[in-house]
From TrEMBL:
GO annotation, biological process: maturation of SSU-rRNA from tricistronic rRNA transcript (SSU-rRNA, 5.8S rRNA, LSU-rRNA)
Stretches with biased composition (Polar residues): 111-123
Organism of this sequence: Apophysomyces ossiformis
UniProt cross-references to InterPro entries, sorted A to Z: Slx9-like
Record localization: Nucleus, Nucleolus
Descriptive protein name: Ribosome biogenesis protein SLX9
Basic residues: compositionally biased ranges: 1-11
Keywords (A to Z) from UniProt: Nucleus
Region named Disordered: 1-23, 111-143
Keyword Nucleus recorded: yes
Cellular component aspect of the GO annotation: 90S preribosome; nucleolus; preribosome, small subunit precursor
Length: 181
């Protein structure tokens, strides 16, 4: 069977128009336009006048997913900013207090009563500072503190005042170590 010859029409054909358009769909077949904004990640669907909106199930799913991802992204960035701000504030405070503590250790006020007591302090052995166990973070520091406490306990047990009156000696030791409360 021979091929049928195509009849030629005068002027431009409608198919040529479709080839040169961005989307190869006839204008009268378009029921909705998807407009994408540059300033936001969302897409708006605007119906053409006189046409009913019919969005495919896949398109609805895609739009819902993109909206959900956008919400998650904004929530995540807000949370990260708050966390960063909180960490910066804590680090700045710790750094300021460390510098202040170093400065206090270097400053020594010379008064008449202080100079007399400083002579006595130089003859005495420096007492180790007791650090609360909840302030110690590393395992190494905890182990060191435990060893110091064991040595301190052995010294207390060997002391003559403890052998004579243990309760009052312990009470006095606690007052000296932790201060008057």
């Amino acid at each position: 069977m021979p091929k049928l010859q195509r009849t030629k029409t005068k002027g431009r054909s409608q198919q040529n128009d479709l080839v040169h358009r961005k989307y190869a769909v006839r204008q009268k077949d378009v029921s909705e336009q998807v407009v994408q904004h540059n300033d936001t990640n969302g897409m708006d669907i605007t119906p053409i006048q006189g046409k009913d909106i019919t969005i495919s199930k896949q398109m609805k799913k895609k739009l819902r997913h993109e909206a959900w991802i956008g919400k998650l992204d904004t929530a995540y960035t807000v949370r990260k900013k708050q966390q960063k701000k909180k960490n910066n504030k804590q680090n700045e405070l710790a750094a300021d207090l460390d510098e202040f503590n170093d400065l206090l250790n270097t400053i020594e006020i010379k008064t008449p009563s202080n100079t007399a007591s400083s002579a006595q302090e130089s003859t005495e052995a420096p007492r180790p500072v007791v650090v609360p166990s909840n302030k110690i973070k590393s395992k190494k520091a905890k182990k060191k503190a435990e060893m110091q406490e064991i040595l301190r306990f052995q010294k207390v047990m060997q002391h003559s005042a403890f052998k004579q009156d243990p309760l009052s000696t312990i009470r006095q030791h606690v007052q000296n170590t932790f201060g008057q409360s």
